Amino acid sequence: MAFGYQVLGFGSGGGPGTYEVQFLVLAGGGAGKNYYGSGGGGAGGYREIASKTFEVQIGDSYTVTVGAGGPNAPPHSPPHPVNDAARAGADSVFGTITSAGGATGGAYSRNPGLDGGSGGGGGSGGDSNPIWKGGAGGIGNTPPTTSEPSGSQGNDGGKAGNYQNGGGGGGAGAVGADASPLYFEPATVAGDGGAGTPSTITGSDETRGGGGGGGCYNPGCTQGSGGPGGGGNANGGAGTTNEGGGGGGAPGMAVPSFPSGNGGSGIVIIRRLTSASSTTSGTPSPAPGPDTVHTFLSPGTYIG
Q1: In whole angstroms, what is the distance from residue 62 CA to residue 272 CA?
Q2: How large is the average pLDDT for residues 10-28?
Q3: What 3-state DSSP class applies to 103?
Q4: What is d(CA 255, CA 207) in angstroms, rounded to the nearest whole number?
C-alpha cells in the first residue's frame, strides 16, 4: 500500500493514479438492557458523505470491517438478575474512516444509558418517589467525529422516567425520546428510539440507524417503539440486520425473563464512477447514471 498525503488525505484533489468515492459506514447497533423497564440500545455510528470526494489510490487495499450488533443479554428470572456487562455494537471501518458501535441502554435503578456511536436510553428509576429520577440517556457521537469528512455520527439516548419506564436509544438522525412524564408520577409511555438517517447512495432511498425503544414495567404503559431505520421495539425486538438498529429494552415483571433485543449489524457501502476503476470488491452493482456501488455485509477489502 502506498503511503502519504494522497492516500490518507480527504479531498486532496485527485492526483495521478487516484479517484474519489462516496461512502456510507454504519456500525453495529447496541443491545437493549434486560431488567425492569430498561433503556433501548443506541444505533450504530453513521458516517456518510453525499458526493464523491474521498480519495483512494488505484490498486491499493482498504480494510473494510462490518460491525456486529450487540448481543442481547441471556434471560433472567425475577426478582434480581445479575447486572450484565455492556453489550455495545461493534465498530465498522473503511480505510481511515471508523464509525463507533451503538451503546447499550441503561438498567433499572436509575442507571444511565451508555455512550457510543448513538447513546443508549436511560434506565428506569424504580420507584414513584420523585427523588428516584430515571437514568439519563447516553451520549452519542462518542468518540466524537469531526465535521470533515462526515460530521456527527449519532445522537443521545432519551431520559427514563422516575418510575419503571426506560428511555429510547439514540438514532443516527435524531435523539431518543424521553419516557413521559419524567418525574413525580408513574410514567405512562416509555421512550421511542430515535429515527435513523435516509440515504440514496445505492440509488434507492433507504433509512438506516434507528434507535431501540425503551421498555416499561407497568401493564398499562405503552412500550417504546424502535426508531425508523431498523430500531427494535421494546420487549425483545431486535435491531434490523445490516441497518445498525438498536435493540429494544426489556419490559417488567409481567413478562418473565426480561427479554431485550440484540442490536442489528452494520454495513459499508462505497460508490464510485464506473470508469474510474475496474475493481470488483465487495458486491458490486450498477447505480443510476455512470456509477457502480460496492456493498459489504461482512468484513473484506476494497481494492482501489
Answers
A1: 14
A2: 78
A3: coil
A4: 31
